[in-house]
Each structure stands twice: as C-alpha cells, then as structure tokens.
C-alpha cells in the first residue's frame, strides 16, 4: 500500500500499485514545519507565567536619580553630579554593579566609532572632531570612593561587600562632565538658530544597567543603532543654564515662579484649561530677556526609565490641555525656534501632540506624565519619557507623522519597558502599528492614506533582509527601517485585521500593555499573552513572521464549473505556496455585478498545501480574487487572481450518464460510480467513496490520490491511471 495515498482509495492503491511509490515533488509549503508543537522555549516560571503575565514572584530592580547639572553654552559642556539610589529587589546577592555610559559612544576610540563604515552612518557624530565621552571625576558608594572599571560604554563598580537581595540599597554618587556632540547619533545634539543654540540633551548622565530574571546583567555596549533598556524609578533634575534660556524637560516643572515672569505664568494657567493652543512665549518676546548669570530649572518625573531636556534662548513656547481618561489632565507643550513657526509647521505641533496623547490614552492605556513636550532640534525624531525631539524643518504631514510616532513611544517602551537593545521591534514595530490607527483617527483622517498591504510583500519578505528577531546591532543598517519598524508593524496589522479581528486583538493588546506597564516583558511574554487572551494558536505566525523570514504566497490555482455548467456551481482551488500560511479570503465577482466572499480558516492549511471548495451558485463567474481588501502582503500578486478570460471551455455533461459498476478481472476489484448532488463519486471495494472532478473529454480526476479516470464514449469501459501505470475496467 502506498502510504502517500489517503485511506479512502487504499483499496485501489493496494490492488493496482502493488506497493510501488510514485515520486512527487515536495511542495515549498511544509505544514508540519509551520504548525509543529513545542514552539515556546520554556514553560512558566515563578517570575513569568506561561499565560504571558508576570509570575507570582516577579521582581525587578529600581533606580532613583537626583541629578544636578549645569550647561556651559560656549563650550557645549555638561557638568554635574548624579546621585543614584539603586534597590536590589532580586533574590540574588550582587558583588558588583553595572552602569551605562552612553556618551562614551562619542569617544574617538569607541566601539561605536569603529563600526561606522566609510560610507557613513546615521549613528555616531557624523565625523565631528571633538573630545567626546565622559570625564569621570569621582565615583562614591555610600559617601566613600569605590573601585570602578570603564569598558567602552559600560562602568563596573566593585562593591566592598555584597548588596543583599530582596531590598538591599546602594547609594552611588558620580561626578562627571562631557562635551556634547552637535549631532549625537540622531538622538541629541546642538542646533544653531538665529536667536540662539538649541541644546537637546539625552543620554546625559550615568544610568544603571538592568539586572533581570532573563539575562542577569544586561551589558550590551551602546554602539549607536540599538537603543535602551533601563530600570524604572523617580528622577529629580536641577538644571542650571544661562539666565536668558528657557528649559523644558521630562516630567513636572517644580519652580515655575522662579523661572517665568508673571505674564508667562498666567498664560501657563490659561493653557492648562484650554483645548486650543495658547502662546506662552511668542516670537515677539524673544530677545527681551536680557538677564545675565544663570538660572536653575527644577523638574521631577515619577515611575520613569529616563529623563531628557532641552534649553535655548530662542524658544517659542506654546501649550494646551490634554484630556485623559477618568477626568485626568496633562499638558501638551511645544518649544521651537522662529525658523519653525507658522500654521503649516510647528504652529500645529501642540495640536498634534494633544491629539496623539488623547488617542493613545483612550485606545490603549492612560498617559502617565504631567506634560508631553515636543522640541524642535536637529534630530530626525527621538523619544524620551514625557518629551520628544523632532526635526525643526518638519511641517505638515511630516510633522504630524514624526510627532505622533515619537509620542507613541511613551507607550512602547516608556510604559511597557521592553529591551530595545535586543528587540527593537517591540518598541518601534508596536509603535509603527499604533501610529497607523492614530493617523486614521486624527482630524477625520486629514493625513490618512489607506495602505495597500498586499503590495508590500516583495519589500517585507525579500531574501536580503534578516529575520525580525535579529537585534539592531546584528542587522545591516539599511535593514533597520524594515525589520524594526515596518515589518513588525505590518505583522500586528495582519494579526488584527486578518487573523484575530479587531475586537479580539484590541482586547489582548490592551491586556498586554496593562500586565507589563512599567515592567520588562520579553517577546515570549507578548506571544503568550496574545494567545491566551485571544484563545487562538498563533505559534505558526510567530514562527514565520518574527523568528524566521518565511514568505507568503497564495494563489488561485483553478476555477471550474461543476460538470462544465455554471448553473451547477463552481469548484475553486487555492494553493498555499509560501512557507507562511494565512487565513485565506476569496472573493468571487459574478458577471451580473454581484459578489460572494468565502473565508478559509487557518486550520485548512494544517494538513493541506491546496484546498478545493464548492460555491453553490447558478451564476457565471467573471473574476476570483484572493485578499480583495489588500490586507496581506504577498510576494507574487500575479497568481492571486483568476479571470473568466483565462477559463478554458468545458463540455457540459449529465453526471448520471457515468454511473455504474466497473470490474477488473485480474485484480477482481470493482469500482462503483454514483451521482450525489450533481457530483460523480467513486467507491472501491468496501472503502469510503471519493469525489471526482470533471476535466472534459469524459475524464475525471481525484487529485489527492493522483488518479485519472477516462470513460470511453459509449461508457462501457474506463481507463484508470495512477502516475505512469494504467488499468482497464469493464462495465458490468
């Protein structure tokens, strides 16, 4: 018996093939590989449940910062002291601590500079020559000097005695300074304007590395492409700048009466109660502040993983109220130079900021900071808790897009604190996805353009790209846009619109955000959560879209009318050619202008490479098309459509004319043919009957078993062919 043949024709196989195996080409799609079990590398633990939520013994360490810094405008130098209270909530005793010194990226001999190719890079200082990197003046633990070692962008502090677990506290004080690059890896820098320099300051103080239950110490160096993985805590920053400067920063300004005049304070109070943008410091007042000396601005942000700020004498400032769920309020603020002003440019920045924050808060999770500040600088776009930097030349649709994207990061990774060094797609990709929904919602779709997802297949699934799960430092720089942003964002859109549906997806996604707010999820926590909440098996999708770089290619293989007559209905055959299966949507357009849509669930592809279904209709078909709404990327869209002009004429028959019993004397096998609902069925011996498809010229096929049956014109004999072997039967 040939084990490749289904049981329903096993009798034919036994009598006619005598154990021979007919060689067949292995299809590209392997359903066993796509759906094989044991996708998850481990079961649940005490810290991470198999359901995708933090385990009953989940822990994470915390880092609180008291930061005191001053800005030397002429030297572009930041000098200050970072006081860090580090709490070890892990069960482990720690004999050393690791900190991040990201400014060391700009040191001449840094690893980051070493990996910049001759062709240049977005990352780094764009060839600027200066003495970059931290100057560490002292490191103290509990007030006493302590031994430390600096390796590129990391500092290891050796502890005189182990820091106990489950609540042990280390108090670290670091005195430091650095010269700011003018272009700091597109994340910070100094921008000249006609009314003064704009300083956008980030990665400006030593920060604790994360110690977690997955990797222990996370000490990957900062080489430019990969972003950040940080502990949560409360941060207070006292920032001393020239007295004619205005400072904006993460969190809440604590001393507004000391830094603003009475008119400016009144305008702030007006903005806090206004849904329309209120001008705090208009262009007409720039240059009027002739104060000399310095001024200190004090900020505080709670439950945050980072702090950034910006300072300039040339800022225009405006603001408006943000309305949050449960009656809470925040404040949208914009800071920009006169070169960026105008109703078609940064004059709408606060409107954009307010709209983005309100949308994400109502759709996913409430915004958690007292202000959301958009700063015009020389960065293409960069995000920090409560504050973002966007390019000063952006305007119109471009300014909406970058503002919306950077503030979307306040959900990923500011609220949901994933590891950006390893999994850029968990912040950039998730954010790209939610940006699409917010753009559709903004101002009745002012900038929204419906994307033809189907046409992105050749771009997103090219062999030239690495898999999504490759870290950003481990992929070509030209691949980062596709693999960190667009492909994972498209993956979530496919999951929402095609696989789960918006209602199930949105519920699961909200629960994921709520579970992991201010915590550290892994990709597996996300995968587990989405499956558990949605109640669907999705390992085939994670495996194909994120872990591997499988391609999607589905096609309309054949369209045939039953017995050659459209009045009997049609049989449609679709194929899954690519390694990644998808639920399949098939739309039939009839010649009378009506349509019929058939949805094929993913379960069909768990044991089939192609699928034939019948459409009960008495109408002539004009077109059959897969994915009519263009929701799924496909590498070959040419095979997604069948048109009536492609059809070959088929002679019409009466199936009852072919009914009867046929025998073969040598094998003593009998095959019985009978009509059921207009379809001819065959039955061999005592086995289950099987449907036959008419292909013209008195010929029927059963493709699953590679069987062809040809009736003679007088219906007295049949020729049964399997592969290259042929047998004759006579009618009894």
From TrEMBL:
It comes from the Bacteria. Keywords: Signal. Gene3D superfamilies: Neutral Protease Domain 2. Pfam families: Peptidase_M1 (PF01433). InterPro entries: Peptidase_M1_dom, Peptidase_M4/M1_CTD_sf. Residues 380-545 form the Peptidase M1 membrane alanine aminopeptidase domain. This is M1 family peptidase. Residues 1-23 form the signal peptide. One of its GO terms (molecular function) is zinc ion binding. It comes from Chryseobacterium lactis. SUPFAM superfamilies: Metalloproteases ('zincins'), catalytic domain.
């Amino acid at each position: 018996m040939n084990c490749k043949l289904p049981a329903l024709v096993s009798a034919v196989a036994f009598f006619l093939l005598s154990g021979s195996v007919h060689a067949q080409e292995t299809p590209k799609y392997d359903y066993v590989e796509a759906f094989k079990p044991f996708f998850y590398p481990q079961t649940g633990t005490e810290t991470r449940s198999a359901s995708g939520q933090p385990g009953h013994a989940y822990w994470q360490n915390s880092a609180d910062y008291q930061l005191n810094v001053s800005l030397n405008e002429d030297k572009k130098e930041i000098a200050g002291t970072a006081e860090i209270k580090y709490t070890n909530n892990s069960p482990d005793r720690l004999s050393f601590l690791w900190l991040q010194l990201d400014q060391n990226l700009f040191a001449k001999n840094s690893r980051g500079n070493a990996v910049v190719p001759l062709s240049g890079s977005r990352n780094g200082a764009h060839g600027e020559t200066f003495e970059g990197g931290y100057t560490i003046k002292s490191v103290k633990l509990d007030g006493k000097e302590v031994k430390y070692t600096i390796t590129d962008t990391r500092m290891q502090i050796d502890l005189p005695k182990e820091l106990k677990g489950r609540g042990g506290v280390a108090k670290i004080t670091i005195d430091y300074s650095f010269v700011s690059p003018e272009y700091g890896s597109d994340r910070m820098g100094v921008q000249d304007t006609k009314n003064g320099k704009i300083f956008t300051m980030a990665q400006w103080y030593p920060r604790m590395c994360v110690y977690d239950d997955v990797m222990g110490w996370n000490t990957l160096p900062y080489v430019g492409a990969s972003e950040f993985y940080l502990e949560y805590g409360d941060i207070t920053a006292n920032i001393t700048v020239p007295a004619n400067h205005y400072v904006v920063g993460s969190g809440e300004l604590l001393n507004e009466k000391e830094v603003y005049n009475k008119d400016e304070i009144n305008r702030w109070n007006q903005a806090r109660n206004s849904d329309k943008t209120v001008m705090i410091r208009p262009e007409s007042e720039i240059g009027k502040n002739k104060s000399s000396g310095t001024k200190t601005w004090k900020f505080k942000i709670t439950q945050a993983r980072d702090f950034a700020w910006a300072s300039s004498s040339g800022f225009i400032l405006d603001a408006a109220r943000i309305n949050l769920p449960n009656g809470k309020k925040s404040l949208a603020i914009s800071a920009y130079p006169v070169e960026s002003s105008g109703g078609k440019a940064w004059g709408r920045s606060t409107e954009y900021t307010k709209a983005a924050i309100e949308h994400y808060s109502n759709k996913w999770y409430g915004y958690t900071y007292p202000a959301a500040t958009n700063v015009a600088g020389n960065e293409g776009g960069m995000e920090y808790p409560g504050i973002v930097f966007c390019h000063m030349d952006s305007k119109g649709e471009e300014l909406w897009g970058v503002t919306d994207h950077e503030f979307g990061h306040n959900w990923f990774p500011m609220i949901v604190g994933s590891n950006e060094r390893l999994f850029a797609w968990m912040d950039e990709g998730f954010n790209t996805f939610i940006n699409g929904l917010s753009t559709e919602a903004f101002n009745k779709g002012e900038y929204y353009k419906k994307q033809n997802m189907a046409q992105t297949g050749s771009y997103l699934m090219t062999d030239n790209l690495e898999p999504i799960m490759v870290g950003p430092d481990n992929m070509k720089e030209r691949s980062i846009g596709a693999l960190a942003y667009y492909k994972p964002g498209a993956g979530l859109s496919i999951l929402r619109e095609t696989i789960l549906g918006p209602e199930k997806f949105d519920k699961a996604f909200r629960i994921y955000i709520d579970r992991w707010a201010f915590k550290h999820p892994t990709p597996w926590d996300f995968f587990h959560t989405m499956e558990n909440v949605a109640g669907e098996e999705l390992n085939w999708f994670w495996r194909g879209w994120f872990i591997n770089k499988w391609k999607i290619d589905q096609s309309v293989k054949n369209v045939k009318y039953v017995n050659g007559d459209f009045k009997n209905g049609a049989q449609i055959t679709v194929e899954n050619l690519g390694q990644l299966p998808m639920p399949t949507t098939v739309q039939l357009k009839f010649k009378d202008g009506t349509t019929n849509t058939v949805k094929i669930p993913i379960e069909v592809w768990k044991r089939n490479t192609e699928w034939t279904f019948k459409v009960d209709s008495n109408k002539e078909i004009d077109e059959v098309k897969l994915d009519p709404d263009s929701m799924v990327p496909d590498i070959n869209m040419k095979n997604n459509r069948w048109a009536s002009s492609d059809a070959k004429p088929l002679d019409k028959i009466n199936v009852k004319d072919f009914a009867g019993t046929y025998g073969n004397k040598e094998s003593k096998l009998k095959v019985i043919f009978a009509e059921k609902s207009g379809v001819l069925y065959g039955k061999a011996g005592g086995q289950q009957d099987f449907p036959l498809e008419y292909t013209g010229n008195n010929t029927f096929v059963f493709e699953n078993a590679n069987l062809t049956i040809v009736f003679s014109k007088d219906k007295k004999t049949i020729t049964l062919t399997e592969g290259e072997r042929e047998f004759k039967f006579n009618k009894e």
